[in-house]
Amino acid sequence: MKKSSAGSSVIIIALVNLLLLPNASLGDPRAQVSKIMCGNQIAINNTNFIQNFVSTMENLSAQLPTSSFGIAESGSGVDTDHGLVQCYGDLSSTECVLCFAQARTIMPRCYPFNSAKVFLDGCFLRTEIYSFFQEYTGPNDIAVCNNSTRKNSAFQASARQAVSQAVSKALNNSGYGRAQVPVAGTLNESAYVLANCWRTLSDSSCRACIENASASILGCLPWSEGRALYTGCFMRYSDTNFLNPIPGNRSSTGKTEIIIVAAVSLTVVLIIGAVLGVYISKRRTIQKKRKGWDDPKELVKTLHDSSLNFKYSTLEKATDYFNEANKLGQGGFATVYKGVLQDGREIAVKRLFFHNKQRAANFYNEVNIISSIEHKNLVRLLGCSCSGPESLLVYEFLPNKSLDCFIFDSRKGKELNWEKRYEIIIGTAEGSFQDDKSHISTVIAGTLGYMAPEYVAHGQLTEKADVYGFGVLLLEIVTGRQNNRSKALEYSDSLLSIAWKHFQQGAVDELFDANLMLHNYHNVDVKKEILRVVHVGLLCTQEIPSLRPSMSKALQMLVKKEEHLPAPTNPPYVCLTQELNDTCEDQYLPLDYSDRASISTVTHSTFYPR
């Protein structure tokens, strides 16, 4: 009991110290995406490329907290990966780490291309297969304008003045400058500007980059906001104050609030401490039963002894060493290959892009869960391999042609009229989810477009996660569009976001797949049926899991057409105030480089590994 008390006391002290930190005020890490630029060369050796990329990211991550900047090189020869990360000058160390975490998560969207630039509003991340650290100009340098609000001449004059001031400050302040210029004739309106060069540049290179960027960004006027995304620098102006307080000055602000919060919270912390004492005592008892999971050797032994284990070398031989000729497809996190085991069994091997040994315990647990599920709409997971340079998942192989071969094909799509598509929808719902207990979404094996957001973020694997994936499938079948890659050039949103905005505007029929050839239908009930399917799809993909219907309820909604449907709330990752053709984060993401995930390959009643 003494140990428990001591442990709780340490936690109390740590919590109180956290409350009393002089830098407790956290600003905005500004992790919104400005633009993602992917290279045009594909990695030659995927294994080396992935290992070097991960090593570079880890190296950058280690440098960032102390300097808000980092450069790294990993590998050798043609496989060498070069990386640079820099946070803009108004971000604190904590904000910088948060911004980098987002950029690092986004960058794999460019895979399998071997170079990428990620411009966030708070930081910049770049990787290449050559040393680029002295580059300050490039063919992809661009100004991105927000064409939503036109400003008057007074704001334009202030913006020009603020840009000039920020450039001057940057050239005399190691490449970083910021400015705020009030707008004449207004009470509280100003123009705000930030300019930042990368620290690897010489003074002359920084000057050249930032002067070119400033000239380019002023071309965005009279619009309210503009960004210059250049090889060696970043610049932004806006009529909204996006600048964080200068990190060094934050300790002097909000002291009164912090003291009040600390005083009020102290009592709560003491109560929590008492509860923690009991909790820690019980947790130690539980940990004794699970002590093997914290020991990597024990975990490897458990995996090795498991019936789910496959030798990495066995899977290499089965796929002819991951020969491109055996490649079946590529999703958001992995590439799938066809393989043949020595006993003649055909398998599908999912080769995960990133291997993290720290996640081995979770990986093994998820494999256990998924492999234990058997129903006719789920391809059986045979096992896994964690011993090689990357993690592998092994599925049974189904040679059937999949739904996406038809529904996303402009020619073959005509073979699936509405009657056939509706039959697939009802058959899927009836055949696979009758007990509402199927758990088939997994962050390890899944594709982003079909994974419920609560599982992506928190690992909550529930029937409501399956309902989410089913809702995505409904929308894709109706529209003939992939969730993670819209076919229409005017959109860079996900299908969920597009469907939601059209639903709000009463324009859902604009999304119907042209291959449905609805002009051939004279029965108005067909259109009503399709509208109802979209409505149910949006109910299944609501952001809050508790609001989603169960699978049995979703089936009832589809079949009982006279039943009133509740109004859906917004799906995840949707900016509630955006216009029809706007997006929240990926507004400037080129379609060709959006998340390369495809529909779960499906036959009439068979899901392909996701």
UniProtKB/TrEMBL annotation:
ATP binds at residue 350. Keywords: ATP-binding, Kinase, Membrane, Nucleotide-binding, Receptor, Repeat, Serine/threonine-protein kinase, Signal, Transferase, Transmembrane, Transmembrane helix. Pfam families: PK_Tyr_Ser-Thr, Pkinase, Stress-antifung. Residues 322-565 form the Protein kinase domain. Residues 31-132, 137-242 form the Gnk2-homologous domain. It comes from the Eukaryota. One of its GO terms (molecular function) is ATP binding. Residues 1-27 form the signal peptide. InterPro entries: CR_Ser/Thr_kinase (IPR052059), GNK2 (IPR002902), GNK2_sf (IPR038408), Kinase-like_dom_sf (IPR011009), Prot_kinase_dom (IPR000719), Protein_kinase_ATP_BS (IPR017441), Ser-Thr/Tyr_kinase_cat_dom (IPR001245). The chain crosses the membrane at residues 258-281. The keyword Ribonucleoprotein does not apply. PANTHER family: CYSTEINE-RICH RECEPTOR-LIKE PROTEIN KINASE 3. This is Cysteine-rich receptor-like protein kinase 2. It comes from Fraxinus pennsylvanica.
